[in-house]
Amino acid sequence: MKALYPFAELAGRVLLAVIFIQSGLGKIGGIEGTQGYMEMMGVPGILIYPTILVEVIGGLFIIVGFQTRIAALLLAGFSLLSGFLFHFDPSNQMEMISFMKNVTIAGGFLVLLAHGAGKISIDARR
Asked: How many CB atoms lie within 10 A of CB 13?
């Protein structure tokens, strides 16, 4: 069973990161719309650019296992912050499900922060 751990670690990293890469790349194609949504929620639209960088670069770092603990900490914080800013609405069940998704993803990143990327990673080779 332990022989599967490195592959489970890699698969877990990919599954945690793919939503961020997809989201960041999607924002590139719809910057104006996303900026408008951010501003409607009280967040300065100019923050779209660092948001895209955090999502895409952070996600790629998680997948390849480079500076994993730092990337995991940043993405955990990003997940919690964006959850509170965009989804925390106790009167709306669907928004609360999205909020809890963000909280759950942050939990996965905190486990990654605590345990590192695992054997199949750039971090393990360094």
From this structure: 25
- Is a pLDDT exceeding 90 seen at residue 126? no
Record the tokens describing residue 15, joined without a space.
């599954």
Residue-wise pLDDT tens digits, 1-18: 899 999 999 999 999 999
Confirm if 35 and 48 have CB atoms less than 8 A apart: yes
Question: How would you class 57 by CB atoms within 10 Å of its CB: exposed for 0-12, middle for 13-18, buried for 19 or more?
Answer: middle
DSSP state at residue 124: H
For residue 67, report the phi and psi dihedrals to the nearest 5 degrees. 50, 45
Q: Which two tokens stand for residue 66?
A: 């480079």
* Residue matched to tokens 């790629």: 60
Extract the tokens encoding 4.
Answer: 């599967």
Full-model pTM = 0.94
How would you class 66 by CB atoms within 10 Å of its CB: exposed for 0-12, middle for 13-18, buried for 19 or more? Answer: middle
- Residue 52: both structure tokens together: 């895209």
